What does this fold into?
Amino acid sequence: MLLSLLSPSELWTGCLDYISRPCTVLLSLVTASLFCLWGRDGQVPLLVCGDGFRVFLQRHCPIVVERFCPTPWCWGGRLQTLVRVFIKSSPAVTYRNERIKTGDGGQLSLDWVDNSSSAEHPQTSTRPTVLLLPGLTGNSQQTYVLHAVRQATRHGYSSSAAAQCSVGHPLVLHQWSQDAAPQGAAPQDAAPQDAAPQDAAPQDVAPQDVAPQDVAPQDAAPQDVAPQDAVGWKVLVGGRFSAVTLRMLLLNYLARKGRESKMIAGLTLSVSWDSFESSASLEQPINKLLFNRHLTSNLCRAINRHRKILETVIDVDHVLKARTIREFDERFTSVMFGYKSCTDYYKDASPGYKLQQTAVPVLCLNAADDPFSPKHAFPVSLAQRLPNVALLVTAHGGHIGFLEGLFPNGEGYMDRLFGQFVRAAFEHLEDLREACSVKDQVTQ
It folds into this structure.
């Protein structure tokens, strides 16, 4: 009725006046930009793998062929990395902590969700188990770990997370003696290739005399698991075990053990493929300010907490003066593992150099804008030749970000990928082994 009282010229004048207001212009620009960014960035990730593995993933993990649309207002890898820490929800998870004493006085700590009420797998001895290895200075309370545990529980599996750096739950407590000082050990004795340069807080230093033959028997319940090598643990529950990690430890372990790993599959999230390139990326001015100093500070605090144990074999005060991860590795990690230099240590710790030695199916998720793992270091050509390795690369996602949707506080792309791949590995094991040309490694 009101419009009928206005002349056409008055109507046009009113419309022009409204759309020319600053607040309207700003709102329109923001809305247009968000839709533009969302539509432009949404694309199917790059999947690099052999034909057999590709067919398996496309059939049982359809997310690999879906468009990934990162959160439009969270542009760039750095922002994806930072925002996840503050915005991601933390599902309620109740853990059962297990501390495992080793023969040399060390102690390991695992946080378990046994999922005893699982309808799909009611028997503990045959219930599939997922091992979660958190990233640098991480622990079982990290949001990505909690979401993974919830996914595993939902599918009827049990899960175990390394309680690294958790308050009251140190991952490894090891009383070093002068006779067992790591500086005097040869690299092959200390298994240095299993240690990631950015994951080597003192909690990560495994006891030196824990031999591979100390593994739990095939029919062992979770509480019977025995500690393993410096890389992590092999939780053997009915021979059905899958590992998910954000660290280089898993890949180094799989490369070292080959067909003897006792795992059926592995999934890595934002792993650093080349220690040299990762260190260089983190030393760029912005990355150094946002990430490097903070992570180095956390590592130094971990050293200081164990000063009494470490000061007999290392110059703790010198280590605490480190301001970058490279300096920390030069002063602590490479020395503790018996390396002549940090360069030797970085070369031995980089999983990209030994990926061809792995013998189980491994899916590796990385983002091209990850500030921790630059894309030019991704082993693309190697993944193309290996039948058991798949490299999934998104254009955006940062480091352990992969945020999607306007309000990315719930489960995201990374969580959904985890759920689909773990379930595919456990429920279609024979198809997976055939697709990846895996023979006689794990008995179901």
Remarks:
- The chain is about 35% helix and 10% strand.
- Strands lie at 46-48, 96-101, 107-113, 129-133, 158-162, 172-173, 241-245, 265-269, 362-367, 389-394.
- The first strand starts at residue 46 and ends at 48.
